[in-house]
Write a structure and sequence with these properties.
Blueprint: H1 14-21, H2 30-57, H3 66-89, E1 98-101, E2 104-107, H4 114-122, E3 146-148, H5 154-164, E4 166-170, H6 175-196, E5 216-221, E6 230-231, E7 237-240, E8 243-246, E9 261-262, H7 265-271, H8 274-286, E10 292-297, E11 314-319, E12 324-334, E13 360-365, E14 378-381, H9 392-402, H10 416-421, H11 431-434, H12 436-444, E15 446-448, E16 456-460, E17 465-467, H13 472-496, H14 499-504, E18 514-523, H15 537-541, H16 550-555, E19 567-569, H17 574-578, H18 580-621
Parallel strand pairs: 3-4
Antiparallel strand pairs: 1-2, 4-16, 5-12, 6-9, 7-8, 10-11, 12-18, 12-19, 13-16, 13-18, 14-15, 14-17
Amino acid sequence: MALLTDHRPQPTNKKEEDDDDGDDDEDDDVDEDKDDDKVSVDDESQSYESAVSQWITSFALFGDSPAALAFSALIFFVSFFVSVHLQQQSSDDNGGLLLLFYGRVVSLFDQKPQQQQQQQHDDSPWWGPSPAPASPTQNELDPPVIYQYSTETLETIKKAYVQDGVVAVRGLISPGLLNRLDEASRSLVQEQFTQTKHKKTHDHLTTRRTRNGTQFFTSHHGLIFRDPPVPRSKHWNVTTNNDTTEHDIDDDDDDNDNNHHVLPPFLQVAIDSLVPQMAAYLLLDSAALNQTSSFTFLDHGEQQPQHLKNGTTTTTTTTFTDNLRLIRDIFLAKDDDPYICGWHVDDFGFWPATPDSPGINAWIALDTMVPLEHGGGFALAIGSHEKQQQQQSWIDEAHLVTGASTTSPPEGYQSAQDMIDRRTGYGTCNLATSAPHLHQRMEDTKRVYPVERGDVIFHDRWVFHRTIAFAESFLLKQRQEQQQQQSQRRQQSANDNEDDDKNSQQPEPLFPVYRRYSLRYGPGSSTVIPPGYGLEPSVLWDPSNGGKTANEICQSSGGRLLPWYPQAWPSKSMEELAHWTDFVDHQLSVAYEMQTKRKQELKPLLAKLALQQQQQQHLNSKPSR
C-alpha cells in the first residue's frame, strides 16, 4: 500500500518564505504574486487529487478501477458484520471485536488496561485473583441423553460416565418397586405438611409460604433404617371382611428372596436393585482395579425392568477387588421456596468419607420433572470433577471458597470451635457471591436432564451440582390449578353430604413438590470415615472408628457384622439383615441421640459463622472507590 505524502510545492527562496510569513513591504509586486499564486494553487490541486486517487485505489484488491474499489469495499463490510456475529457468540471475556481484513485478524479492543487489571487484583478476595477458567460452551457439550438400560447399552453408558463423570439411565427400577417408593415418599411429604400446616401461612393471591430460606420442604437422612426388613416367615396375609391384604409387599415382589427377607422400598432400591449394581459397574470398573472377575446384573423378579423379564442374566467382564457399600441415603422434596444451595460438592454431612475415598452418587427422580422450563430439577457442571493439570487450579479454588471436605485437616477437627475456626471459604452454597467467575464456569457447562419418574442420574462424588428453583410462571399456574381442584373436592363433598369423608381427608400442599432419593456408594475397603470431631453416627458410637474403612467398621463389633454402611454389591449381606433390628434399636439409636446433642452444641457456632460469612460477602460485594 502506497504511503500518503504531501505533493504540494514547498517554498524555495526567501521571497516565498516572506510571502508565507505575510510581510507587508512587497506591495509593489502584488499583481505578480497573485498570478504566481494562481498557478501554484492549480498545480497543488492537481497534485493533491492525484495523490488521493493513488491512495484510495491502493485499497482495491483486484485492480485500480472504481469497480475493483467497490468490490473491495463490499468484502470489507461483509467481513465486518461476520466478525460482529462471531464475536457475539464468543465466550471469551478478554477478546475484542474481530475484523477479517486482508486475511488478518485485527483486534479493535485490546484487553483491559494494566491499571484497571491492577484495580481488579486489589479488589479480589483474600485467596487471590483468578481469571475465569476456560470452559466449553453449551453448544460444545454433548446434549443430555438418558440411556435405556439393556445389555446392548452397558458399554455406552460406561463410556458416557467415564467421559463426563455423569450419566442418566432409565429402566433400572421396576414399576412395582417404583409404586412402593411413590407411596412411601408421598407419606413423608404429607407427614411434613401436616406438622407444619399450622405454622406456615399462605398469601391469598400467590399461596406462597411466607417462610423462605429453606431449600427443601422436607429432608430425611437414613430412611433405610426407618423400617426394618421383615423375615419371610413373618410375611403374612391379613384377612379382613373376606378381603385378603398382603402385608408390606405385593404378590409380584419375588425379587427379595431367595434370601428370606422382604425389604421396605427405600432399603430395597438402595441395596437390592439394579441401582447399586449399576453404581458398582460404573465406579469399580472405572477405578481400573487389578483383579478380573465376572460382573453380573441379576435380572429377575421385581428388580428386573418390564422389558427385560425373560429370565436372563446379564454378564459382562469388569475388574474389581472390592465390595460396594451404601455410605449415605437422603430423601429430599423441593417445593416453591426460591432459595437453593449454589454450586457445591457434598460435605461430610452428606458424604462422610475422606477426600481420597472414591464414590458415586445415584440421584433417583421420584417425580417427572419436565419440561425443564418449569424448574425444580437437578443441574450438574460437566467435567468439574476432573483433576487434570490444566484444571487443577480452578477446581482447588472452588473447593477452597466453598469449604469443601477436601480442605479439612487430615487428622480431623478436635472440637466444635476448631471446626468453625479452621473452616475455609464463605459457605458451601455461596459460590455465586464468593467467586462469581467460578460460578459462571459452572453455569457454562451446566447440564439438566429431562428426567421422568424412576430415572437415575449417576455422578462422581466430586461433580459440582445444584438444585434448580421452580419458575415463577409455573408456580402461579400450579397454585391456581390446585386451588381449583381443592375447591371442587370441597364442593363435591358438600353436595354428597360426605362429612365423614371430608373430615378424614388430609390437606395437601398448595405448591408443587418434586421428590428425589439420593444414594451415596463407596468401595468398602477404600472408603475411609473421617476421624475427629463431627456428626457421623459410627464415630459418635465409637471414636476409634474414625479413620477406618467402611468394611472395618461394619466388621469391628465383637465378631458381628453390623450395617453401619450396608453392603449393596455384589449382593446384600444376610448377616447384616439378621442383625438389622437389634442394631437400629441399640447402637444406632444411641448414636442418633449423641448426634442430636452435638448438633445443639454446634448450632450457635454455626449461626455465628453464617453471620460472619454474610458480612464478609457484603464487604466483598461493595464497589471499589
